[in-house]
Write a structure and sequence with these properties.
alpha+beta, 46% helix, five-stranded antiparallel β-sheet, Beta-Lactamase
Length: 128
């Protein structure tokens, strides 16, 4: 993937964080754990993000594969500290969004629904 497309994806993820209160970080990874794009703030431990992706790769490939088969679906894990939401994309990629406990999941889902098509077009190198 060329650098212009990566920059565009990073811009989309940055806009998502700016537009949805409580969103802390987001990133797009392939099913094998390769990070394509990210908007990881300075307050986020990148090592922890790496562990999350590695865990998905090592223990959750079957789960990740099932997520990708259920296109258009959102998967979420909620906790007192916040939540992780996964949005399957085309081409064996997944959008991860980490949010604070005071986030607005409904607003996030609406915003993500609007940008998924753009993200997939950028990944596929299509005109938007």
């Amino acid at each position: 993937m060329n650098s212009d497309r990566i920059v565009r994806l990073n811009e989309l993820l940055k806009a998502l964080r700016a537009e949805v209160p409580g969103t802390r970080t987001s990133f797009i990874v392939t099913i094998d754990g390769f990070m394509i794009a990210s908007d990881i703030g300075e307050d986020i431990d990148q090592y922890e993000i790496g562990k999350l992706i590695s865990s998905m790769e090592q223990k959750g490939q079957k789960f990740a594969a099932s997520i990708l088969k259920a296109s258009g679906t959102r998967f979420a894990v909620w906790s007192e500290k916040g939540d992780i939401q996964l949005f399957p994309l085309k081409n064996s990629t997944i959008l991860f969004v980490l949010s604070d406990s005071d986030s607005r999941p409904g607003l996030l889902q609406l915003r993500v629904a609007k940008i998924i098509e753009i993200i997939e077009s950028v990944i596929n190198n299509e005109d938007i």
